[in-house]
Amino acid sequence: MTAPKYQFIEEDLRQQILDGTYPEGTIIPKELELAAHYSVSRPTIRQAVQNLVDQGLLEKKRKRGTMVRQNKIRQEFTHIIESYDQEMHAKGLATTTRVLDFRTEDATAEVAANLKLDAGSKVFKLVRLRYAGTTPIVLVTTYLPYAPLQDMATLDFTQVSLYAELAKRKAAIVHVRRKLEVMAADDTTSALLDVPTASPLFFFHTFGDASGGRRIEYSIASYRGDTNYFVFDIDNSSSNRDFHMS
């Protein structure tokens, strides 16, 4: 079934907002201009634009037109356990993944300590570049213990979700701790994320545990500073006072 025209236009406008074609604060073309550009009716344009208004990417200004409200993606994984694909799809963003490396290796002292393994233990190393639409958003390197997950060696992580595959193997992540830093992009990271060298990046270390406190995941993720912002949901009730940042 062919998707409605307004959905195509909505996605195209969203990507132009995210890639900076329409920077934050600019006025997008008027309905008549967009209708002519896409060869559709004004009501079709109106529906696509209204959906982006409802999502917070556009804002209607009286006597001025429709303005780009923000071009940053609200990231909420700081207080929920959810895969990247799940979170982006919930925001109406299409995702793709490039697997830059997936192999087994002997754990370094740092990786072994963070996975609660003996130094030199065999681990999976998975390096992925994640996109929202055509825009690279995050570069993430994930380490997993090899012994309980050996059959994951043949998986294609451009097509499957890591968290979903862990759940299938009774190793679902049920608790995470994350450490946030701000770092400057080096030459390699800047090239992959398409940002200038030394641009600020949000740099997260994630420690993910399955039931019983089994450490399953240690990830290092570099998020672009120009396309992301993060929401921290802090509950001061007595049962939730284990939240902290370090």
Q: What's the level 1 CATH class of the largest domain?
A: Alpha Beta
Beta content: 25-35%
- Proportion of helical residues: 25-40%
Q: Spell out the helices and strands N to C.
A: HHHEEEHEHEEHEHEEE
How many domains would you count in the coordinates? Answer: 2
Strand order of the largest sheet: 4-5-6-9-8-7
Major sheet attributes = 6 strands, antiparallel
Under the CATH scheme, the architecture of the largest domain is: 3-Layer(aba) Sandwich
Structural class, from helix and strand content? alpha+beta
> How many helices in DSSP terms?
7
Pfam family, one: GntR
Protein name: GntR family transcriptional regulator
Keywords: DNA-binding, Transcription, Transcription regulation
Task: Indicate the topology.
Blueprint: H1 5-18, H2 31-38, H3 42-54, E1 58-61, E2 65-68, E3 73-75, H4 84-90, E4 95-106, H5 109-114, E5 122-132, E6 135-145, H6 162-168, E7 175-184, H7 187-193, E8 200-209, E9 215-224, E10 228-230
Parallel strand pairs: 3-10
Antiparallel strand pairs: 1-2, 4-5, 5-6, 6-9, 7-8, 8-9
Structural account:
The protein is an alpha+beta fold and 246 residues long. It folds into two domains: 5-68, Orthogonal Bundle (Arc Repressor Mutant, subunit A), CATH 1.10.10.10; 73-240, Chorismate lyase. Helix content is 25%, strand content 32%. The protein is built from seven helices and ten strands. The strands form three sheets. A six-stranded antiparallel sheet has the order 4-5-6-9-8-7. A two-stranded antiparallel sheet has the order 1-2. A hairpin with a 2-residue loop joins strand 5 and strand 6 (135-145). Helix 2 (31-38) crosses helix 3 (42-54). The radius of gyration is 21 Å and the shape is elongated. It starts with a helix and ends in a 16-residue tail after the last strand. Residues 3-71 form the HTH gntR-type domain. This is GntR family transcriptional regulator. Keywords: DNA-binding, Transcription, Transcription regulation.
